[in-house]
Known about the structure:
- This protein is α+β, with helices and mostly antiparallel strands.
- Helices cover 32% and strands 24% of the residues.
- It has four helices and four strands, in the order ααβααβββ.
- It has helices at 3-11, 14-28, 38-41, 48-57; strands at 32-36, 73-78, 81-90, 108-115.
- Strands 1-4-3-2 form a four-stranded mixed β-sheet.
- Helix 2 runs antiparallel to helix 4.
- The protein is globular.
- The N and C termini lie far apart (36 Å).
Amino acid sequence: MTASEKKTCAQLPRAERIAQLNDKLRFQGLGGATIVTRAVVHLDGFCPRELAAALAGYCGFDPDNDPHGERDFGDLELFGAELLWKIDYYDPDYRFGSNDPADAAQTKRILTVMLASEY
């Protein structure tokens, strides 16, 4: 990250900094990992590329599913099932919760995709 990018990030509201880091994981797979539950993997027609494209293209954020503006939760209808996804924040070793989800250096993200019935 360049000095000008750091300055720009520092000027953003906290929720927007978190949202941009969450988007980076959804769009590019950077800053963490994606986990798909066994039930989702075993759905008829499951395709990892199709799931990745659906996560990257998700734009159904509203005050009900994104009350803090962090773009960390959503729902999808895919492979004939209702799916939910969420992002959790961990320390760089994935052992504890992150002290500051707005700081990429302190945070690794886990995006979990599950059946709605698994939530």
